[in-house]
């Protein structure tokens, strides 16, 4: 049997196992909205750990990370730097958000915002922009799955078909089982990702150079510019410190504001689970170290892949690994893609229905669940169209998406910790922040020091939020106490 | 160490880490030597800060847990993943019940105030407290 056939069979088995886990998990969830969106708030530490890790690290990290180290060297270290900084505030915020969720029945981020700042317009605005940020992110995941399958089957399964099959399976289990399926499949996929990354990341340098140390000695001798931060820009010229630093800042601020990650606070069983998820997250994040080693191992390799993002499958196929290992790698890469893609699709539908539609139209539970399913399919279809149509600017789109979601941080923090914040202030801040970020995205030559437009948006956002809040009438102290007071969570 | 000091120290760690991994901290660390476990220093630098944050957060959590439970009996380290201790199962419903559920009344409920949120997402529909 030819090796690509064996690998295809391996992928098929992997996909079937994922599907079965997803469908079985759904049988444990209740038929309510809280069941579909927040898994009945039932997840324990094991599931939360892998959900968080596997959801944060997607095709962007698993394929894009090595792609960046390969082509831009130390620039990729920004991906290693921001995760923990973004996650740490959740040690305190997470339990508070979860408590408010239990208390008031919130299952999405905009519901929490609307609880504190009662405005349907604000909620709809957050829902719309979340959706705008989600679509390119899903597209990247689908392309990632397609790229991997096309590469390892030597083109016998083209990108469009690979992405279609992988995401057809994601659709089935997300539609059938909601958050419960996302949680349990991510556990399976997270284990895969970590195991594969560490194994290959240590094996490839050993196989090609005789070890990690010798590999970096050779790179330091031949391509020293790759080993010092901030590394290189996409065109091979040195990258700026302003860009490197602000990418870390905007990603750290934006990370937990992604609705699909934020909503995970509502799925945890209890506060200890949430806190320990945060504590253990850095151990998952260190899997970026071997992922980067894979990218570096390709630097001095004589042949080059068609695009930097292909470096991981390219190296796998070029060092003549056993078929079984290639198959395992595929499963790991598909895991990275699907574990983020499913959470994104699921969250996009939940957010649009709960925050964009429900506040305006009265819907029954059953109608809400039905509408969510329609939206999962339509969001998936739009993203699939983007994935197949190609898109060299996708990474740029994701960076812009971070500019959008990072603007959610000031109102969320204000909702939880600043009693004087008002609805007008939150709305004005969001509009100002998004406008500023959009302006600098469209006029990149005006950005000082190449600073990311999301950071510039925040610099406009926060003063507007504070200023307008102080200029408008304070909220009822009873009301703010329920969000900012210590009754809910503090020891 | 008091809880307050511990929290301040933890926050301080992350602020220092932020300064260390962006400009200007990262610029000072931007060199190949000394190499750590074979990695260039510029690469090992953020990785070490990430690894250190596990220790800081685990230490803080021990103190927080001890404080929450009001005694030295239960410092739950991160070494026991999986099921929550039975302690939580008995503790949480008590705490939940102790919250001023009735005080605010339906009138002040942020969802009820607009009068259109589905009842099924009412606060007590979730299985919170079921340990």
Describe the fold and architecture:
Chain A has helices spanning 3-26, 33-38, 45-56, 59-72, 77-87, 90-104, 109-116, 120-152, 159-177, 179-209, 212-222, 241-255, 259-262, 271-285, 288-297, 311-318, 323-357, 365-389, 394-406, 409-417, 423-442, 453-471, 477-484. Chain A has 491 residues and is an all-alpha fold. Helix content of chain A is 74%, strand content 0%. The model of chain A is unreliable at 487-491 (pLDDT under 50). Chain B is mostly helical and 131 residues long. Chain B has helices at residues 3-21, 25-28, 41-69, 86-98, 101-108. The two termini of chain B are 31 Å apart.
Could you spell the SSE succession of chain A in H and E letters?
Answer: HHHHHHHHHHHHHHHHHHHHHHH
Share in β-strands of chain B: under 5%
Q: Structural class of the secondary elements of chain B? A: mainly alpha
Our Rg estimate of chain B from Cα atoms comes to 22 Å
* Number of separate helices of chain B: 5
Rg of chain A (CA only): 22 Å
Percentage of β-strand residues of chain A? under 5%
- Shape annotation of chain A: globular
Biggest interface:
A-B, 80 and 65 residues
The helical percent of chain A reads over 70%
Order of helices and strands of chain B: HHHHH
Shape of chain B: elongated
């Amino acid at each position: 049997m030819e090796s690509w056939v064996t690998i295809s069979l391996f992928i098929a088995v992997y996909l079937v196992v994922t599907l079965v886990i997803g469908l079985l998990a759904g049988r444990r969830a209740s038929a309510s909205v809280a069941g579909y969106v927040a898994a009945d708030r039932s997840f324990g530490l094991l599931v939360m750990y892998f959900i968080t890790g596997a959801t944060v690290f997607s095709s962007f990290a698993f394929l894009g990370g090595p792609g960046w180290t390969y082509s831009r060297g130390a620039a990729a270290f920004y991906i290693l730097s921001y995760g923990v900084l973004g996650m740490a505030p959740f040690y305190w915020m997470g339990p508070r958000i979860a408590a408010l969720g239990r208390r008031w029945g919130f299952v999405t981020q905009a519901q929490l915002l609307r609880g504190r700042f009662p405005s349907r317009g604000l909620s709809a605005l957050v829902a719309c922009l979340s959706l705008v940020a989600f679509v390119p992110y899903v597209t990247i995941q689908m392309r990632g799955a397609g790229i991997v399958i096309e590469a390892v089957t030597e083109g016998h399964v083209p990108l469009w078909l690979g992405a279609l099959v992988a995401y057809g399976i994601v659709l089935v289990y997300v539609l059938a089982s909601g958050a419960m399926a996302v949680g349990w499949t991510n556990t399976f996929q997270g284990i895969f990702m970590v195991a594969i990354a560490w194994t290959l990341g240590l094996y490839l340098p050993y196989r090609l150079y005789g070890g990690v140390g010798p590999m970096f000695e050779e790179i330091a001798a031949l391509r020293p510019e790759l080993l010092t931060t901030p590394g290189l820009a996409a065109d091979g010229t040195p990258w700026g410190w302003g860009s490197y630093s602000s990418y870390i800042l905007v990603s750290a601020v934006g990370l937990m504001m992604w609705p699909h990650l934020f909503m995970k606070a509502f799925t945890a069983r209890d506060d200890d689970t949430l806190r320990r998820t945060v504590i253990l997250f850095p151990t998952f994040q260190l899997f970026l170290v071997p992922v980067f080693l894979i990218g570096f191992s390709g630097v001095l390799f004589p042949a080059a892949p068609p695009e930097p993002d292909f470096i991981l499958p390219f190296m796998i196929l070029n060092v003549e690994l056993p078929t079984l290992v290639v198959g395992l790698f595929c499963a790991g890469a598909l895991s990275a893609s699907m574990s983020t893609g499913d959470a994104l699709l699921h969250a996009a539908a939940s957010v649009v229905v709960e925050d964009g539609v429900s506040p305006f139209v009265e819907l029954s539970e059953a109608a809400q669940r039905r509408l969510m399913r329609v939206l999962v399919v339509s969001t998936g279809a739009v993203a699939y169209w983007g994935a197949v149509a190609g898109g060299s600017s996708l990474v740029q789109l994701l960076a812009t998406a971070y500019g959008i979601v990072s603007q959610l941080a000031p109102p969320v923090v204000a909702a939880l910790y600043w009693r004087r914040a008002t609805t007008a202030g939150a709305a004005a801040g969001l509009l100002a922040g998004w406008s500023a970020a959009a302006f600098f995205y469209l006029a990149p030559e005006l950005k000082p020091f190449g600073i990311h437009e999301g950071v510039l948006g925040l610099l406009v956002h926060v003063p507007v939020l504070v200023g307008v809040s102080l200029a408008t009438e304070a909220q009822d102290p009873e009301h703010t106490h329920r969000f900012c007071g210590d009754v809910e969570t503090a020891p | 160490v008091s809880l307050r000091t511990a929290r301040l120290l933890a926050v301080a760690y992350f602020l220092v880490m932020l300064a260390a991994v962006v400009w200007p901290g990262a610029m000072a660390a931007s060199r190949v030597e000394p190499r750590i476990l074979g990695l260039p220093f510029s690469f090992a630098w953020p990785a070490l800060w990430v690894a250190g944050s596990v220790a800081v957060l685990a230490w803080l959590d021990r103190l927080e847990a001890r404080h929450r439970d009001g005694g030295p009996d239960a410092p739950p380290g991160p070494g026991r993943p999986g099921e929550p201790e039975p302690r939580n199962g008995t503790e949480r419903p008590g705490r939940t019940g102790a919250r001023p559920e009735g005080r605010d009344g339906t009138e002040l409920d942020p969802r009820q105030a607009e009068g259109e949120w589905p009842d099924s997402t009412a606060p007590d529909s979730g299985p919170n407290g079921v340990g």
